[in-house]
């Protein structure tokens, strides 16, 4: 959620005139994340988040906006989009596709406990179940094909050891039968900074702009890799068990998911190692851009290759 495209106060005030949200009071850029331009917006009637989409094709954006509207309708704490006076979610501001969503309460945390992980696991299962009735389909934009393409782009920019690890891991993952696993809507980026906490409750789940149809287990692996990983890249047993048991209580694991859980963890680690390498070596210019350390996810990938992980032994 960096700022790549500037917005002036006058332009924003005029743009908000098409919404029933009152008059602009203040706004500020959000200096976190790496994909879109985001701003906190306060008006005389409420608090919102404005997103200017930098890389997603305009034709793809209704999928994300209607998805969050669908999930909000099912009771999930997601940023419901605000429609303009023509009942449209998507507009144009500063030459970019733009959307306004309600700002959710709470703050993200850096040191989750097993109790936090329990709530996250249950919430993710609820999201996956609610997503089964979402009528629109769109491929996950950071799926296996993207991983292969980005690997080719970044290989000239990494050392020989990293290049060998990338090639070996891509070849190994290509042999895994992920297509036979349960599929559906996935968030695909459920990191700690995309979950807001209002006390001990989840106040909001944000940033759905990597969402799409893919393997549910991959989404779970993305979540576990962030919420349950220690500094050396290994999994914290207590947090991992709490999250996986809570998820399994809501959506039972299949036997094929049990077999491919270690592979899903590796695929999820590779996805974020690749994106961070790309952000570091092939960045886009922006006013406020946060580039995250690729080595964090390299450590996680190596730990998942070397380690043994299992889903909970329950139906």
From TrEMBL:
<comment type="pathway">
    <text>Amino-acid biosynthesis; L-threonine biosynthesis; L-threonine from L-aspartate: step 4/5.</text>
</comment>
<dbReference type="GO" id="GO:0009088">
    <property type="term" value="P:threonine biosynthetic process"/>
</dbReference>
<keyword id="KW-0418">Kinase</keyword>
<dbReference type="GO" id="GO:0004413">
    <property type="term" value="F:homoserine kinase activity"/>
</dbReference>
<dbReference type="InterPro" id="IPR005280">
    <property type="entry name" value="Homoserine_kinase_II"/>
</dbReference>
<keyword id="KW-0791">Threonine biosynthesis</keyword>
<keyword id="KW-0067">ATP-binding</keyword>
<dbReference type="InterPro" id="IPR002575">
    <property type="entry name" value="Aminoglycoside_PTrfase"/>
</dbReference>
<dbReference type="Pfam" id="PF01636">
    <property type="entry name" value="APH"/>
</dbReference>
<keyword id="KW-0808">Transferase</keyword>
<keyword id="KW-0547">Nucleotide-binding</keyword>
<feature type="domain" description="Aminoglycoside phosphotransferase">
    <location>
        <begin position="27"/>
        <end position="251"/>
    </location>
</feature>
<protein>
    <recommendedName>
        <fullName>Homoserine kinase</fullName>
        <ecNumber>2.7.1.39</ecNumber>
    </recommendedName>
</protein>
<keyword id="KW-0028">Amino-acid biosynthesis</keyword>
<dbReference type="InterPro" id="IPR011009">
    <property type="entry name" value="Kinase-like_dom_sf"/>
</dbReference>
<comment type="similarity">
    <text>Belongs to the pseudomonas-type ThrB family.</text>
</comment>
<dbReference type="GO" id="GO:0005524">
    <property type="term" value="F:ATP binding"/>
</dbReference>
<dbReference type="InterPro" id="IPR050249">
    <property type="entry name" value="Pseudomonas-type_ThrB"/>
</dbReference>
């Amino acid at each position: 959620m960096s700022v790549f495209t500037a917005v002036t106060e006058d332009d924003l005030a005029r743009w908000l005139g098409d919404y029933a949200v009152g008059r602009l009071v203040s706004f500020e850029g959000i200096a976190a994340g790496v994909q879109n331009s985001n701003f906190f917006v306060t008006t005389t009637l409420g608090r919102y988040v404005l997103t200017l989409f930098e890389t997603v094709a305009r034709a793809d954006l209704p999928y994300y906006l209607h998805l969050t509207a669908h999930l909000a309708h099912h009771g999930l704490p997601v940023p419901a989009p605000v429609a303009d006076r023509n009942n449209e979610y998507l507009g144009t501001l500063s030459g970019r596709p733009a959307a306004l969503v309600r700002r959710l309460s709470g703050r993200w945390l850096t040191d989750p406990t097993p109790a936090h992980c329990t709530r996250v696991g249950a919430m993710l299962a609820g999201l996956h179940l609610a997503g089964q009735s979402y009528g629109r389909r769109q491929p996950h934009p950071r799926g296996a094909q993207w991983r292969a393409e980005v690997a080719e782009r970044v290989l000239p920019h990494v050392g020989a050891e990293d290049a060998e690890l990338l090639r070996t891991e891509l070849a190994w993952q290509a042999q895994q039968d992920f297509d036979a696993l349960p599929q559906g809507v996935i968030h695909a980026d459920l990191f700690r900074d995309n979950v807001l906490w209002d006390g001990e409750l989840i106040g909001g789940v944000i940033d759905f702009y990597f969402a799409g149809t893919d393997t549910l287990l991959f989404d779970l692996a993305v979540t576990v890799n962030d919420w349950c990983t220690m500094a050396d890249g290994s999994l914290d047993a207590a947090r991992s068990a709490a999250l996986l048991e809570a998820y399994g209580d809501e959506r039972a694991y299949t036997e094929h998911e049990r077999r491919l859980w270690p592979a899903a963890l590796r695929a999820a680690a590779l996805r974020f190692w690749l994106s961070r390498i790309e952000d570091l070596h092939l960045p886009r210019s922006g006013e406020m851009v946060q580039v995250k350390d690729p080595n964090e996810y390299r450590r996680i990938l190596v730990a998942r290759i070397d380690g043994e992980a299992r889903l909970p032994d329950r139906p």
